[in-house]
Here is the input.
Amino acid sequence: AQSVTQLGSHVSVSEGALVLLRCNYSSSVPPYLFWYVQYPNQGLQLLLKYTSAATLVKGINGFEAEFKKSETSFHLTKPSAHMSDAAEYFCAVSGRGANNLFFGTGTRLTVIP
Amino acid sequence: SQTIHQWPATLVQPVGSPLSLECTVEGTSNPNLYWYRQAAGRGLQLLFYSVGIGQISSEVPQNLSASRPQDRQFILSSKKLLLSDSGFYLCAWRKEYSGANVLTFGAGSRLTVL
Here is the structure.
């Protein structure tokens, strides 16, 4: 079985500050891990994914995430927040070959000018 | 390129009325199709998924049902809506046998049950 826990339902950062959104996973098999972003009243857009190649994964819009097996974590970071980064972010996990993708409860990011 | 369409985008329905949300995918064949529901503060809940025509797997027992009458069409239905069915419904697809299980989402359908 797979699941993810996102710590912090709301995160606020100042424009230009570091963005850190936390995600811990649980999986009985080697996982695939994902971060998605959702803007208001829209569907989800893939930011990045981990598929067992490099542990540091770079995505769109300057985001990156690092897979740490020892900590069962896949935290999302961005060095400098932009106003356009304000959105809801979802971490997700899937087992290899599985049909399902399991999502966390989401973290709403607010960027303060 | 592949595209996914959902409709209607918004829907306001009275309690006890029926529901039909439609989702179609273009530009691919034999996709895996999914319905998720997003309720405020609860993240995304997988409702149904389908790996082929007529093949539906239900993840959560509820007042809803799903059907896949054609390869690239996925329909979410209810005979009698409940207040608790309100939410944002998202359809998604992924390629068959996709090793990385990347889901591509539609724009969503917002349902309000009054």
